[in-house]
Design brief:
It comes from Puccinia striiformis. This is Mitochondrial import inner membrane translocase subunit TIM22. The protein is mainly α. The chain is 71% helix and 6% strand. The chain folds into two domains: 73 residues, no CATH class; 55 residues, no CATH class. Strand 1 and strand 2 form a beta hairpin.
Length: 177
């Protein structure tokens, strides 16, 4: 239900009586951006090495014979490594960032429920379970592997939530002198 509310300029606006708490921007964006950076670094390293190996394998039959040709061969290889590393870094960083954003968003959504409002450990376990279920369905894992993945996702989410609960508990108490 909307209730009229007057502002200082005698303008009437309507505000909602139901207050819905907003999702924490920092609790979602910080882990997501860190995961994207770590994923980019990991993907760039791995994909750059693979691009270098692929270039060598593709051009092994026509190795250069002069010093100038070796220079251009190495220069071309370096360009391929940089381009392959950049592409792989973006791909891996995007994937890891998306999965992390999904987990953090689910965890924050679960903390909006009144029953588990202040228990991030339960919210983390539920978010981990849901993300593991989503990953099992998305990647079409064999049914024999799914229970193990669900347990692992639940335990990792529980650990992340327990760490946040411990941090909140330590911030509430007065430090000893």
């Amino acid at each position: 239900p909307l209730v009229p509310h007057s502002e200082p300029r005698n303008m009437t606006t309507f505000t909602s009586l139901i207050q819905t708490p907003a999702l924490s921007y920092q609790e979602i964006m910080m882990p997501t951006s860190c995961a994207m950076m770590i994923g980019f670094a990991s993907g760039a390293t791995t994909s750059g090495k693979l691009a270098g190996y692929q270039f060598m394998v593709e051009n092994l039959h026509r190795l250069p014979r002069t010093r100038a040709n070796w220079f251009f061969f190495q220069k071309t290889k370096n360009y391929k490594v940089i381009l392959g590393g950049f592409k792989g870094g973006l791909k891996t960083g995007g994937k890891l960032g998306a999965w992390t954003a999904g987990f953090c968003t689910l965890k924050e959504l679960f903390t909006l429920l009144p029953a588990i409002e202040r228990r991030k450990s339960i919210a983390g376990a539920l978010a981990g379970l849901n993300m593991a279920l989503g990953a099992s369905l998305f990647y079409q894992l064999r049914p024999t592997l799914s229970p193990r993945r669900l347990l692992l996702g639940t335990l990792m989410g529980l650990c992340a939530g327990l760490a946040e609960d411990m941090k909140a508990h330590l911030e509430e108490e007065d430090p000893p002198l």
